Every structure is written in C-alpha cells, then in structure tokens.
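Page 42, continued from yesterday. The earlier attempt failed because a stray header line got pasted into the input along with the sequence. Redoing it now with the clean sequence only.
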Amino acid sequence: MKHKPDKVNNAETREAVPEPNAEPEINAEPENGEIAAEEEAPAGWESVANEKEKQALELLDRLQRTMAEFDNFRKRTIKEKASIYDDGVKDTIEKLLPVVDNFERALAAAEDKENSLYKGIEMTFRQLSEILKRMGVEPVPGAGEPFDPNFHHAVAHTDDESLGENVVAEELQKGYKYKDKVLRPSMVKVAN
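This time it went through. Structure tokens are written below.
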C-alpha cells in the first residue's frame, strides 16, 4: 500500500512541499552563459506559427472552394438528370401521338357506336388518354380559343362572322403539351 502524507495546515510547509505529479518549475539561471530557451523561443516560434496559420488558411480556402464546386456539380447533375428524363418522356410521347390520332379517327369513323369493336377501341383510347394525362400531357385548347402562334399552327383561314378575328374556328389536328412545353401545336383553321 502507498503511504499518504498527512495534511499539513501550515502554509510554509505547503509551499515547501511539492505537489505529487506536478512539473517542477524552471527558474534556474542557465549554466555556462547559455541563453535560456524561454527567451529564444518566442521569436522563432512566432514566424513558424505565422507560416502554419497562413498554410491553414490556404487549406481552408481550398476546402471551401472544393466544397462549393462539388455542391454546384451536384445541383447541375440533378438538373441534367431531370432534363434527360423530360427529354426521354417527350420523345416517347411524340412517338405515341400518331397512335392517339389513329384512335380518334377510328372512333370518329365508326357508324355503329354499340358495336363491341367500337367499345373496345373506345376503352383502349380512354386508357391511353388517362396514362398520358397522369404523365402530365394535356391537349392544347382548340376551337373557340384565341389564336396563339405558340400553341396553334394555322393551316387555313375562314370568314365567320359569329367568331371574332384571330379566333380558332376549327381544330384539324389536336395539339399536345407536356409540362407547359408544346409537343405538337394544333393544326387549326383561323377566322378572319
């Protein structure tokens, strides 16, 4: 067992007895005319500390720039992925639009609306239309709407007093848009 020293209440004794595990103070004068390490260190250490601080600031700046570049890269990549997805959807829908047109023509040409073939075509057309609607595809407004060159392609003019000037009189082919981008403008007849 270790022997514990008794507590001493005398202040003089406490000062004279060093604390256990305490580092000894170096107050001694250097021997043989040597310069004390305390006097020499501040000048040398100050320049080293300044150099290290400068390096640390440079590294911090490089890190912050790299992080900003990576964040910009991440944002750009997300936008590119969304754009690529939208372009793929747009291309696919554009290829499906002639099929939609053929369904509409078949339904318009049918004479017997109670025929099972007509009902099957109508159900398939409704299902395809619902899928396109859920994907964000909408038909461009047609007959009775003001002519808008962004959404309509005028292929004919007609004189119609019941309609105002530059109003779509008839829609010859339905146009479609996807997320406010025109996939195909409507082919229309415009009233003068």
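Notes: Confidence is low (pLDDT under 50) at residues 10-16.
Reminder to self: strip header lines before submitting.
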